[in-house]
């Protein structure tokens, strides 16, 4: 692919249309560069609300936004659906699923994926939730398991289908377990009159001694209390040993029979081939200098979840959150223009705006610097911040309506199995005539 | 499956949660019967708006409604996800994917599917659009083809990816070709600045000499004029001979190179096994008597698209439209109660409320008995009727917002490829480095 015919401006290739990639492209609007963005999807995913898609609270399209449409009016922007196979930093090209592309500047904003820490069995049977297709798979799987439970004649046989285990008590695990608890408390008996609230169990498990690890102790304690009151069984300081699709085993011998393990216990960067081994940090992240430049290259950048900027202040790099990606993206956009103009560049400085996590209806926790609060007001702040951050007026309105409708009803959302989720080797068809009472 | 333990009421099994099945269940609320509905999906599909899902105007969840939620408050209603494999009318049971079920009354409301009239090649390569998964496949396929066109170096090579042929000029074909023309006229160059309006072609083909066959001549002529003005090439009195995925051939020798043929040229009833051969009519419909009872059975009914009620007034049966299914459903609900009470039953009478079809922005046609009108006012009526018919307040509001947003923008909707559509043998990966200018 060759875009040099049409322009004599340097070509900036951005790989990934997440929070970071979007900012880079935006900062380069009306600047003397051509921008080419690649992504394997033609949309931006608003990851903070993925769990609501997974739990049937929102339709998938309301947290996705067309990358093409977003840049409709940016004249120097081009987009292609493609995946990067390899970076050839020495000759300034990338190999992609749509051919080789020569760049002048390259920004790797490929984000992160679920980290199963090498456990192939867990990877096979546990559900990840880092993309819209994965969130939909999770939704379908949860609903299918409830339907399946109805076909089982005994409580004993129903149990594993109605038991949900979340591994990893970060914001995703907390939000998912809270939503599952609300499904159990408010929806289960309405939608499935054959089942009682008590038939369903939700476990939240972490090997750390607290939920919401990076939050303040105050927020962690409040979140744990909220969850416990909602009926989530919180198991802390517990390490998962194995999961075979039927039973999860913990270190020390405890087991739980379950058909659903949701894995949000870790992420790792999505690093394309061609990045030097010695430039890969813990968590599969690419080591970058103070302007997010990949060590040893003059014109290749990495930002967001896939970047590790190791400094005295950030010995482990920055946290893998949207704010870091957004701020790094903006900084890299500015830096590229400075490099083109031979102007001095400035080191990246992260401004931590604080952390929010929601547990459920009227329940959230907020750590905004020294200001910490929990409960209803935190929940309002959480909703406001997420609503204004969503791309597109239509999406904002539709998400808002969904939330209002769910708040009034206790029973909103869209619990539809649009496409059946099938995992090979897992769904045995063992349907025999059964008695339902 | 046995539901007799819990109740001594007769069990009415309804197969299918479409327009007809819903009405039967509703009419049986608070009556001395148990109702069991089976459907392969856990939602009702509002088929009249399927084409908007296919064209990215609406998210799939806004035209689907949970069958469980719809009957949350109906105490005698049960639901299971299941498909019927066979009807054993002699012993009053059905065999299903979840086991054998004994019924007292059975209502077959399985609807219709796409009829390819036995042409296996067309079935393999053309796109049907009768369900939400099929509509999504169509959306993804259209968008993927436009993306693919961008990778082709010459106009000649791009052409088949940007040419869309609709076979069947009924309401579905008219609505789809109108939407594709609007995509071409208002969106194409904005979303894909490399492409011009003139690069995309939309054909609407029918072997009949008019569009909207069953409508008045006035409506047909208006629809054709609307389409032509929007840039759709309408080819009438033309019969399709073959389609191999690359080229569609018509009787007489004309051919069009296209990667997308959308087939809405006919439907056929979905008839479970076990129905006597001599009771199957043209179009794969089940012959029923004047109360929609399958000929020769005392307690098995068929309604809607899968039923053929042949009388002197309706020598070909009723048209395959939602209104027929709705009215038959209500009638059968009433009839079952009359049979249980040993009361006399009345023959079904169809009340034709009229027909509506939309072509695009401000453009629709309405045949309401003798009252016929076309254009803006028909379009308002069309929107109003469809909006009030949608299940669920949330869906109504969300569809309304989508429509308002699209009306203001000329560029609304959700053109997202959430899951890539892949057809075996069709998508060759022939991506070589290409030049984009």
Automatic annotation (TrEMBL), chains A, B:
Reaction catalyzed: a quinone + NADH + H(+) = a quinol + NAD(+)
Q: Where does the FAD/NAD(P)-binding domain lie?
A: 12-329
Transmembrane ranges, per UniProt, are 376-393
Domain External alternative NADH-ubiquinone oxidoreductase-like C-terminal, chain residue ranges per copy? 353-407
What EC number(s) does the entry state? 1.6.5.9
Q: Which InterPro entries match?
A: FAD/NAD-bd_sf (IPR036188), FAD/NAD-binding_dom (IPR023753), NDH-2 (IPR045024), NDH2-like_C (IPR054585)
What is the uppermost EC class here? oxidoreductase
- State the UniProt keywords alphabetically: FAD, Flavoprotein, Membrane, NAD, Oxidoreductase, Transit peptide, Transmembrane, Transmembrane helix
Q: Which Pfam families match?
A: NDH2_C, Pyr_redox_2
Q: Which family does it belong to?
A: Belongs to the NADH dehydrogenase family.
- UniProt name for this protein: NADH:ubiquinone reductase (non-electrogenic)
From which source organism is this entry? Answer: Mucilaginibacter dorajii
């Amino acid at each position: 692919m060759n875009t040099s015919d049409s322009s004599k401006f340097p070509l900036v290739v951005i790989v990934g249309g997440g929070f970071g990639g979007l900012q880079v492209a935006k900062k380069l609007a009306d600047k003397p560069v051509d921008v080419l963005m690649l992504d394997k999807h033609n949309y931006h995913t608003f990851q903070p609300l993925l769990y609501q898609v997974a739990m049937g609270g929102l339709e998938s399209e309301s947290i996705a936004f067309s990358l093409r449409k977003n840049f409709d009016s940016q004249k120097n922007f081009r987009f292609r659906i493609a995946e990067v196979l390899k970076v050839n930093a020495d000759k300034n090209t990338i190999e992609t699923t749509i051919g080789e592309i020569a760049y002048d500047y390259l920004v790797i904003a490929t984000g992160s994926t679920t980290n199963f820490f090498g456990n192939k069995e867990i990877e096979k049977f546990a559900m990840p939730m880092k993309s819209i297709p994965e969130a939909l798979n999770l939704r379908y799987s949860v609903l299918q398991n409830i339907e399946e439970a109805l076909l089982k004649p005994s409580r004993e046989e129903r149990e594993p289908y109605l038991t949900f285990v979340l591994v990893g008590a970060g914001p995703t695990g907390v939000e998912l377990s809270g939503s599952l608890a609300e499904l159990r408390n408010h929806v289960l008996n309405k939608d499935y009159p054959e089942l009682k609230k008590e038939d369903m169990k939700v476990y939240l498990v972490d090997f750390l001694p607290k939920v919401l690890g990076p939050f303040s102790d105050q927020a962690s304690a409040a979140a744990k209390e909220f969850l416990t009151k909602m009926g989530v069984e919180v198991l802390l300081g517990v390490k998962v040993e194995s999961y075979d699709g039927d039973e999860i085993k913990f270190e020390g011998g405890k087991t739980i029979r379950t058909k659903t393990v949701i894995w949000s216990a870790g992420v790792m960067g999505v690093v394309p081939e061609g990045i030097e081994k010695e430039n890969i940090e813990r968590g599969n992240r690419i080591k970058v200098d103070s302007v997010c430049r990949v060590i040893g290259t003059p014109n290749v950048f990495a930002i967001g979840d896939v970047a590790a900027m190791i400094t005295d202040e950030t010995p482990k790099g920055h946290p893998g959150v949207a704010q870091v990606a957004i701020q790094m993206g903006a900084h890299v956009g500015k830096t590229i223009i400075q490099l083109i103009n031979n102007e001095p560049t400035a080191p990246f400085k992260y401004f931590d705006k604080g952390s929010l996590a929601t547990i459920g209806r009227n329940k959230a926790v907020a750590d905004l610097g020294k200001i910490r609060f929990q409960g209803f007001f935190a929940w309002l702040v959480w909703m406001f911040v997420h609503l204004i951050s969503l791309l597109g007026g239509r999406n904002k309105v539709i998400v808002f309506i969904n939330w209002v409708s769910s708040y009034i009803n206790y029973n909103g959302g869209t619990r539809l199995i649009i496409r059946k989720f099938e995992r090979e080797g897992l769904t045995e068809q063992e349907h025999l005539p059964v008695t339902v009472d």
